[in-house]
């Protein structure tokens, strides 16, 4: 009970503290976009006879003919009402676009993170237990390779090998086979929705599409996770309580997996939070290569077109997610190490 | 036999088919479905809205009909559009009065909108009124063909409409064929009009009110758009229905993936593969490639003719002689296009056609002489810009140009800019020299030259202002005498040859890569696919 109350209090305080930061993010992105030299009206006024008149028309429609402070106030008012504006690139309201696309990004990122963790933690532990052995060097090599090869290269290579040459993977275009029927949207996560609908065929199709992009991303983040696990395990394994445990004749398995691992997990959780947030924003290349309809590629397209509203909406969304992830990490801390949440 | 996913899938389909007896129907539905992959996005269902993308133009050709349509003519491997041969689309037939001032359109008696209601002259009148009245892209476009006021459109009877103009205009009829000139189900649209939005422009962005060959099944901008054939469509050539029942237009951002999909046979058609992939695809021979130079466009290097030193025609001519044309042509687009340099004429071009090869070739000695005459014996410093979106073709071009210009003392700083920034600086006429492409919907020489080389407007890339050219293009539009018109066009092209506001480089190929079973592809001036033309098998 004390533990839960502590966590609740921390969550409330953190959320309050996040508000000024979010406000700052909104204003800063707004101003940054206006400083960029591109004019969205000119970019989108590209019809075969688009003259000054059309450019002015788009400017008026976007409110760009107003002075910047007025634009900012209007934008803040809109954001306060939950209206993030309209994207010129897709012609849809930004909120609707983000709502449709965020589950795609989250589904991919969660899968990739799970995949990465399920390899990284065992590999990190093994490497720590057999320090400087060939196994340790093998893990180091794998991590180095994973982090050295840019995701678009490994993504394209995987596509070339498993789709183009071998034909094992489904065509790398989006979240579900284009000819398969999509399950009715409940959560937006196709894996979950297809299970809710009881449609195993759709589940298989969606899972099949996930494999290559998730592997590409997991490979990239294997290194920080595995290396952190190893380093942290090494530190813990040489500490007094482990020696005590061993001296008391506890089994090796119990010492490593229960006492050492739990204590070694704190820094891994920290790095996991950072890795997750980075993956969500930085997986733009993976999304592009696999035609994944996620938020990062959406924001990149908008940025290239100087399409203000989607970029601002995306940055705000990312800020919210960072806040949420940091909170989760804090809560997880509390669970991994009860000392953290007391006081 | 190699066991691949495809074989396993085909095998399991066959098993299911044996059990259920619908396998044939499934296979047939795939055969009658066309899957197009593209890197771009359709961003509105109403292409006349400012900001609509080129892909939106293509979509509207299928959802909406126009009164009339351009014909097409065969070329090796496919077809290209033919603006000299205009057929009725929603109109069954049309007549032009002898004085060229009145066009009378007879509508098809059996034509229906998508909701099943019959097409009437009142709908056509409302649509045309919308185009010349509402603030939209159609307004500027119809102006080009002297269509400016609702008074010009008269309902004669429920199946006949008359369009009149003040003086004979070569472009009026053609202007009714362009993508913007859509015909709208006015009863449906009016239901969604509001006092602030009398032309239902807000509603039509997200909804359709047409009668074209296809209807929209799924519309997910940035992901996919699925079209379903309208089996009640009567406006095709000889009243024929399109072959494909279903069209999937899927956005696949990565060009290499698009190429893989087509080569593996999973997708059927793409028109935006990267130029460097196409020779390989052609060589391996698993796909069909239809290449045709974009006859209504050109790639060019523009000089800002009102900015020093490019306000001096001699400087422009000098740089035109310093360009390594052939090397640029090979490095930039792998020679896949038609050359617009190396013309052999001097004073007047051999034909009134535009674009045609201009009389420029690489001649460094001439360039040096001209620069010295212009007062720059030691050259000068300048910048050369291009947009990042076209870096694949323009980066090698820029490097070659820089190297060659250095030989005549002109030091070039290459500026690669994000697309939006490039377009903004270009529209504000703040770039001294840059490379870009240009196309015209109505590829008549006078229109082309008026659009790209006259007036203070966005597409006058070189900020060119030549009194003689201005007068010639103004007059030519209304010139009815063919010989006089041709003479005027010849003179206009000669002026470009003398003044060199832009150096024309080439017409790049429009490359449509498709499954070997697809035929009937047509190159259209708006550079999108017309699915109504395509057939499998």
Structure notes:
The complex is a heterodimer of chains A (343) and B (537). Chain A contains 14 helices and no strands. With 343 residues, chain A is mainly alpha-helical. Chain A has a single domain (94-336), classed as MetI-like fold, CATH 1.10.3720. The mean pLDDT of chain A is 84. In chain B, strands 11, 12, 13, 14, 17 and 18 form a 6-stranded antiparallel β-sheet that branches. Chain B has a 4-stranded mixed β-sheet with strand order 1-10-9-8. In chain B, α16 crosses α17 (467-476). With 537 residues, chain B is α+β, with helices and mostly antiparallel strands. The chains are: A mainly alpha (343), B alpha+beta (537). At the A-B interface, α2, α3, α7 and α13 of A face β1, α5, β10, α9 and α15 of B.
What is the topological layout?
The complex is a heterodimer of chains A (343) and B (537).
Chain A: H1 2-35, H2 40-44, H3 52-62, H4 68-80, H5 94-129, H6 134-148, H7 151-165, H8 190-196, H9 200-237, H10 240-247, H11 252-282, H12 284-289, H13 295-304, H14 308-336
Helix pairs in contact in A: 1-14, 5-6, 5-9, 5-11, 6-9, 7-9, 8-9, 9-11, 10-11, 11-14, 13-14
Chain B: H1 5-20, H2 23-31, E1 33-38, H3 54-63, E2 68-75, E3 78-88, E4 91-96, E5 102-107, H4 121-133, H5 137-144, E6 153-157, E7 160-164, H6 172-175, H7 186-191, H8 201-206, E8 214-220, E9 224-229, E10 246-251, H9 255-263, E11 269-270, H10 278-284, E12 288-293, E13 297-303, H11 313-322, H12 325-333, E14 337-339, H13 364-373, E15 381-387, H14 391-406, E16 411-417, H15 419-427, E17 433-439, H16 445-453, H17 467-476, H18 482-499, E18 502-514, E19 518-519, E20 522-523, E21 535-536
Parallel strand pairs in B: 1-10, 3-20, 15-16
Antiparallel strand pairs in B: 2-3, 4-5, 5-7, 6-7, 8-9, 9-10, 11-18, 12-18, 13-17, 13-18, 14-18, 19-21
């Amino acid at each position: 009970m004390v533990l839960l109350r502590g966590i609740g209090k921390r969550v409330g305080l953190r959320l309050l503290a996040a508000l000024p930061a979010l406000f700052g993010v909104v204003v800063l992105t707004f101003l940054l976009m206006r400083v960029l030299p591109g004019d969205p009206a000119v970019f989108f006024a590209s019809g075969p006879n688009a003259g000054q008149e059309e450019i002015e028309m788009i400017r008026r429609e976007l409110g760009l003919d107003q002075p910047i402070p007025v634009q900012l106030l209007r934008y803040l008012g809109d954001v306060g009402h939950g209206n993030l504006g309209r994207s010129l690139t897709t012609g849809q309201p930004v909120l609707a676009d983000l709502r449709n696309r965020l589950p795609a990004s989250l589904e991919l990122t969660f899968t990739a993170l799970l995949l990465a963790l399920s390899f990284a933690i065992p590999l990190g532990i093994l490497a720590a237990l057999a320090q400087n052995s060939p196994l340790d060097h093998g893990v180091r090599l794998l991590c180095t390779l994973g982090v050295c090869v840019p995701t678009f290269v490994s993504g394209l290579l995987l596509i070339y090998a498993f789709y183009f040459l071998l034909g094992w993977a489904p065509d790398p275009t989006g979240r579900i086979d284009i000819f398969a029927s999509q399950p009715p949207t409940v959560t937006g996560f196709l894996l979950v929705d297809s299970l809710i609908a009881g449609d195993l065929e759709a589940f298989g199709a969606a899972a099949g599409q996930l494999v290559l992009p998730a592997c590409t991303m997991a490979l990239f983040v294997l290194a920080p996770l595995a290396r952190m696990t190893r380093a942290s395990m090494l530190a813990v394994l040489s500490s007094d309580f482990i020696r005590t445990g061993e001296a008391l004749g506890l089994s090796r398995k119990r010492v490593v997996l229960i006492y050492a691992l739990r204590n070694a997990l704190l820094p891994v959780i920290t790095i996991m939070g950072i890795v997750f947030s980075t993956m969500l924003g930085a997986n733009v290349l993976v999304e592009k290569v696999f035609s994944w309809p996620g938020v990062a590629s959406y924001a990149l397209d908008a940025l290239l077109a100087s399409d203000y509203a989607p970029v601002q909406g995306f940055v705000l969304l990312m800020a919210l997610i960072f806040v949420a992830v940091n909170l989760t990490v804090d809560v997880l801390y509390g669970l991994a190490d009860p000392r953290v949440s007391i006081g | 036999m190699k066991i691949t996913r495809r074989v396993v899938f085909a095998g399991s389909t066959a098993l299911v088919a044996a059990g259920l007896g619908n396998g044939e129907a499934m296979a047939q539905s795939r055969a009658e479905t066309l899957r197009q992959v593209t890197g771009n996005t359709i961003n509105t269902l109403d292409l006349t809205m400012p900001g609509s993308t080129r892909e939106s133009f293509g979509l509207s050709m299928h959802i909406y009909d126009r009164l009339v349509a351009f014909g097409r003519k065969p070329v090796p491997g496919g077809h290209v559009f033919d603006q000299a041969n205009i057929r009725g689309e929603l109109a069954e037939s049309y007549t032009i009065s002898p004085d060229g001032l009145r066009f009378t359109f007879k509508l098809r008696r059996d034509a229906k909108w998508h909701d099943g209601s019959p097409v009437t002259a009142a709908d056509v009148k409302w649509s045309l009124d919308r185009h010349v009245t509402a603030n939209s892209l159609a307004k500027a476009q119809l102006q080009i063909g002297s269509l400016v006021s609702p008074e010009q459109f008269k309902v004669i009877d429920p199946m006949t409409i008359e369009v009149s103009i003040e003086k004979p205009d070569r472009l009026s009829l053609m202007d009714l064929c362009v993508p913007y000139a859509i015909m709208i189900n006015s009863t449906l649209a009016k239901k969604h009009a509001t006092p602030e939005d009398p032309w239902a422009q807000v509603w039509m962005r997200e909804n359709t009110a047409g009668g074209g060959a296809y209807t929209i099944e799924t519309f997910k901008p940035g992901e996919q758009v699925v079209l379903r054939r309208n089996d009640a469509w009567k406006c095709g050539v000889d009243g024929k229905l399109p072959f494909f029942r279903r069209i999937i237009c899927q956005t696949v951002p990565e060009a290499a993936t698009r190429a893989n999909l087509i080569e593996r046979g999973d997708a059927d058609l793409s028109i935006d593969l990267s130029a460097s992939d196409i020779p390989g695809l052609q060589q391996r021979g698993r796909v069909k490639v239809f290449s045709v130079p974009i006859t209504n466009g050109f790639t060019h290097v523009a000089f800002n003719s009102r900015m020093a030193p490019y306000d001096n025609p001699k400087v422009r001519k000098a740089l035109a002689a310093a360009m390594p044309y052939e090397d640029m042509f090979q490095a930039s687009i792998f020679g896949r296009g038609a050359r617009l340099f190396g013309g052999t004429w001097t004073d007047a071009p051999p034909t009134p056609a535009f674009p045609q090869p201009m009389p420029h070739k690489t001649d460094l000695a001439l360039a040096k002489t001209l620069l010295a005459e212009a007062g720059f014996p030691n050259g000068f410093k300048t910048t050369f810009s291009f947009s990042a979106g076209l870096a694949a073709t323009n980066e090698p071009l820029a490097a070659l140009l820089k190297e060659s210009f250095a030989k005549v003392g002109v030091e070039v700083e290459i500026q690669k800019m994000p697309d939006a920034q490039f377009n903004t600086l270009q529209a504000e006429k703040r770039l001294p020299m840059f490379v870009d492409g240009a196309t015209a919907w109505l590829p008549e020489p006078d229109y082309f030259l008026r659009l790209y080389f006259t007036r203070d407007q966005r597409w006058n890339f070189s900020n060119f202002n030549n009194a003689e050219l201005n007068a010639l293009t103004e007059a030519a539009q209304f010139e009815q005498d063919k010989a006089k018109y041709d003479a005027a066009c010849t003179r206009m092209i000669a002026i470009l040859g003398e003044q060199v506001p832009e150096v024309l480089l080439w017409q790049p190929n429009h490359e449509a890569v498709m499954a070997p079973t697809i035929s009937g592809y047509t190159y259209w001036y708006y550079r999108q696919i017309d699915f109504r033309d395509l057939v499998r098998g």
